[in-house]
Amino acid sequence: MPLSVQKLVNRLTFRQLQVFLTVYQAASYSKAGEQLGLTQPAVSSQIRQLEAALDVPVFEYVGRKLYCTAAGESLVKSIHVMFDELRFLQSDLAAMKGQVAGDLNIVAVNTAQYVVPYLLKEFCQLHPKLNVNVRVVNRAEAIKRLNDNLDHLVIMGIVPEEKPLASLPFLDNELVAVANADHPIHQQKNLSVQDFLDAGLLGRESGSGSRLALELFAQENRLSLSPVMALGSNDAVKHGVLAGLGVAVLPKLGMLPELKLGQLKVIPLEGFPLRRSWCVVYPKGKHPTPSMRAFLEFVQEHLGDMDKFFCES
Questions:
Q1: How many CB atoms sit inside 10 A of residue 238's CB?
Q2: What CATH number was assigned to the domain covering residues 95-171+277-312?
Q3: What's the pLDDT tens digit per position in 204-249?
Q4: Which helix (H) or strand (E) holds 62?
Q5: How would you label 54-91 residue by residue, b for 16+ Cβ within 10 Å and e otherwise?
């Protein structure tokens, strides 16, 4: 190790780097202190020691606003690399002990938010050292994050075929036709699918997985599809149906309490329920981390009893 680097290592501490990164993200000494449980003078002291070790300023005030210097911006990049390496080391050391540790970052599309908690309950019990982070987004954002390789795994329904993705289907996603219990459509005889679609259909926004599944079904069966209202989530659509705004096609697992209580009723239609699968998805070229491998192995091992698992939940 070069002598100059050795001197730097002797004077730097991980605490200084942590404090610096927190100040950088909060853009405030006082807010960083609140997050770290330190007084503002203690934060200032850590930053002064860091600047003395580096022999350059990392922050500067212009007026009353705090700015990061060019040297500070360069330090941010290096800290991210160092902290990533520490996370990899943590995972490797835990693997040597027969444990899985570190982070597992999962993105779930809106429809899958009803499924992920039940998947994670037993998985987290098996791997208590693992820090699992779940972000719920719409389908368009999930695909963008896949393209940018921002997460470990994505849980979604319809997997884009034009992209080089690996996918593991693990559970049926039944989309059923529903109306609230008082809707006059329940009294209609010989109800066709087109009659249902014309009865005030509430739909998801363009590009969502649920809407795409219904659009594909309509195209295959030469049905016209003209939703009277587009809403931004399945919960919003469900509550619209409960309020009597119209009818909808929604994931059955997202309505189990309302169906059990009789607030919503499934309408029997030819070709329904629409059956898709929830899948665990990641880019084909991605090198699986220990946490990714553990989750994929967990899902694979439970494929046979996955339906029972969710029904019991």
A1: 22
A2: 3.40.190.10
A3: 888 777 888 899 999 999 999 889 998 888 889 999 999 999 999 9
A4: strand 59-62
A5: beeebbeeeeeeeebeeebeebbeebeeeeeeebeebb
pLDDT of residue 97: 59
Helix (H, G, I), strand (E, B) or coil at 132: strand
Question: Which pLDDT score, from 0 to 100, does residue 313 have?
Answer: 44
Mean pLDDT of the chain: 87
- β-pairing, 202-204 vs 59-62, is unpaired
In tens, the pLDDT along 164-202 reads 899 998 888 889 999 999 999 998 888 999 999 999 999
Q: Which fold has domain 173-276?
A: D-Maltodextrin-Binding Protein; domain 2 (3.40.190)
Kindly report, as residue ranges, where domains of CATH 3.40.190.10 are found in the chain: 95-171+277-312, 173-276
d(CA 141, CA 49): 41
Tens-digit pLDDT profile for residues 13-24: 889 999 999 999
Rounded distance between C-alpha atoms, residue 170 and residue 255, angstroms? 20
| 209, two tokens | 């997985």
Q: CB within 8 A of 305, min separation 6: which ones?
A: none
CATH, domain range 3-79? 1.10.10.10
Q: At 190, which amino acid appears?
A: N
Ranges in the chain annotated CATH 1.10.10.10: 3-79
Q: Are strands 102-109 and 153-156 parallel, antiparallel or unpaired?
A: parallel
- Do 151 and 106 touch, CB atoms closer than 8 A? yes
Judged by DSSP in three states, 190 sits in coil
CA distance 211 to 239: 17
- Residue, of 259 and 121, whose pLDDT is higher: 259
pTM, entire model:
0.60
- d(Cα 152, Cα 237) in Å, to the nearest integer? 30
What is the sign, positive or negative, of the torsion defined by CA atoms of 285, 288, 289, 291?
positive
* Structural contact between residues 214 and 291, judged by C-beta atoms closer than 8 angstroms: no
